[in-house]
Amino acid sequence: MTNDDHMDAARLPGGFVPGPIDPEELPADVAVPETLPPTGPAVVGAAVGSIGGTPNVEGMVDAAGDNRVDVLTCADAPAPGWTTWSTVTLHARPNELPMADGTKLDVRVELMAVGMPGSDVMGKILGSCAFAVLQDGWMMAPGVVYGDVVSLYDDKATTPHIMWSHPFTAGDLGAVEIDEDLKVHWLMAVPITEAERTFLEQNDYEALAQLLDSHQVNYTDMHRESVV
Predict the structure, then answer these.
(1) What CA–CA distance (Å, rounded) separates 228 from 225?
(2) DSSP calls for 196-223
(3) Per-residue pLDDT for 22 more than 90?
């Protein structure tokens, strides 16, 4: 089985190969060399180039001070007033996905989320998800659900869970070749209802993704009606 076959099994899409990125060409407030891993500036550059908006990178540290993740905030992306958040250092952590043949494939991932104007809740949710990966080794792949992370910040939300999906607002980030030894895949946070989570378990990721798409779901609306 080829590496490309493994990628299909993990449901991670093919992508583009960006040109060489010079960290010196990034906006002054983006690259923080002393806190980013060596591949960090290239990851930030790829994210900024695809997401757009006004970028800024800040570090987040857990309560114990043991884990740090750097998060890119792109204001006015994907549209004026909206905000996109993306981790830029999770790719430094192994992310082993089980394959159909019983083997495991280490697929490096960054997580992203989009928030409606006037709300930073999705950014906070993204931070909690990132720390779940760093502290507890939660797997990152399309169709994986992080349970009850939305309800931590909004107990009135009808969509208490996060499902990870392909980065449909920034398709170039499906797979980015950072260097000859590293390809990074971005995943988008999609809030889902309990009924949709059950549908996902009974069917599969593609079935739920198509159902959400057919209903033209607002993927940033945490108070929407369930499509199931």
Answers:
(1) 9
(2) HHHHHHHS-HHHHHHHHHHTT--TT-TT
(3) no
